[in-house]
Specification:
Blueprint lengths: L3 E6 L4 H10 L5 E7 L8 H4 L11 E2 L7 E6 L5 H12 E6 L9 H8 L13 E2 L2 H9 L3 E3 L3 H15 L8 E7 L24 E2 L5 H9 L7 E7 L6 E8 L6 H12 L5 E3 L21 E7 L5 E8 L7 H11 L17
Parallel strand pairs: 1-2, 1-4, 2-3, 4-5, 5-7, 6-7, 8-10, 12-13
Antiparallel strand pairs: 8-11, 9-10, 11-14, 13-14
Helix pairs in contact: 1-9, 5-9, 6-7
Length: 348
């Protein structure tokens, strides 16, 4: 079988580097070009030193991108919108890692981005990029918009509860702790854009734009509200989401186990982590560095109807490049776990 020719637009950032790392070892992929305006002509390993002796590719300019089978867009927020028709002419399939096409309506986009979307008529052309929610749609998709990292951690944590209408919709409180890499790479074109990939700032007590994705994916015909905060802490990679929900009915932990097993039991990248002993009894992001897993745990408050759900991901993998490759595999009928099976390291 001939290999699929892919190119990466905006490959000097952290997400672009992770895509390169993953796709260099994908048996069905040929990496054709990687662009960077700031680093045009340099070897990619000059910016991504972990790729020394793995690739002799050099960065090209966006204007030099040739036609390919699949184009990954790792550009600053707003850059995909402005040239999407050009990119569509270069590739039959596009996977966009920015926030430009994550929302399915102009109304939602205007609410959270404070302006109208430049191309609202094509928002529904893009499938929202969490495979666990949109797998069947991805199988037939030409365009996928990868989900935000904080949104991914939160949505995957809460999806079984919201899908089964088990929580009070106006009381969910989510606090995420994030690593410094969420802010972007100083070597990338995106580094001067504080809203890169939809992330607002290092500390976002309210108003984080990823809430729009949570509302979109977890409403299920009802209006869900999320009280969300994000704080950058002293780690490089990772998102740890602590979600407080209030149940409508009295459920036991055994009931909750059954619900999560029913929804996620066959998912290759979801792990339920709830141990009685050991050093890591709940999800821990540092164990997930470099992996495409989302670890989810929970605990019932014995004194109330509050359920605390904890999830952890690597923001550059399950929150960006890894999830994009997972979508790529689904779109092309490949084994979903191809080039994504790294289990992480221990000790860390």
């Amino acid at each position: 079988m001939s290999k699929i020719k892919i190119s990466i637009a905006g490959g000097s950032g952290y997400a672009g580097g992770e895509l390169l790392r993953l796709l260099l070892f994908h048996p069905n992929v040929e990496i054709q070009q990687v662009s960077s305006e700031r680093h045009f002509g340099k070897f990619v390993y000059k910016i991504h030193p972990n790729l020394r002796k793995q690739s002799t590719l050099k960065f090209c300019s966006l204007s030099d991108l040739d036609d390919c089978d699949v184009l990954f867009l790792c550009l600053p927020h707003g850059a995909s919108i402005s040239n999407i028709n050009v990119y569509k002419n270069k590739a039959k399939k596009i996977i966009d890692l920015s926030a430009d096409f994550r929302l399915d309506s102009n109304e939602a986009y205007k609410k959270w981005y404070k302006k109208d979307h430049a191309l609202p008529q094509i928002l529904t052309d893009f499938i929202y990029g969490i495979p666990e929610l949109r797998r069947e749609e991805m199988k037939e998709a030409s365009f996928v918009s990868s989900a935000g990292c904080n949104a991914t951690a939160t949505i995957l944590a809460l999806y079984p509860l919201y899908k089964n209408k088990l929580v009070q919709l106006d009381k969910t409180v989510v606090e995420v702790k994030v690593g410094s890499s969420e802010g972007g790479n100083k070597n990338s074109e995106a580094s001067h854009h504080p809203v890169r990939s939809g992330c607002v700032r290092s500390f976002a007590p309210t108003g984080h734009r990823h809430v729009a994705e949570m509302e979109q994916e977890l409403s299920f015909g009802e209006e869900a509200r999320f009280h969300f905060s994000a704080t950058s802490i002293d780690m490089v990679r990772g998102v740890l989401a602590t979600c407080h929900v209030f149940l409508k009915d009295n459920l036991t932990e055994k009931d909750i186990w059954k619900i999560y097993r029913r929804e996620y039991g066959n998912e290759p990248f979801i792990r339920i982590v709830k141990e009685r002993d050991g050093n890591y009894r709940y999800p821990e992001p540092k164990l997930l560095a470099g992996t495409n897993y989302c670890d989810i745990g929970f605990e019932l408050d014995r004194y109330s109807n509050r359920l605390v759900v904890i999830s952890a991901i690597d923001n550059l993998m399950k929150g960006a490049a890894g999830q994009a490759v997972q979508a790529f595999n689904i779109m092309h009928g490949f084994e979903e776990t191809t080039t994504l099976t790294f289990p992480g390291l221990h000790p860390v």
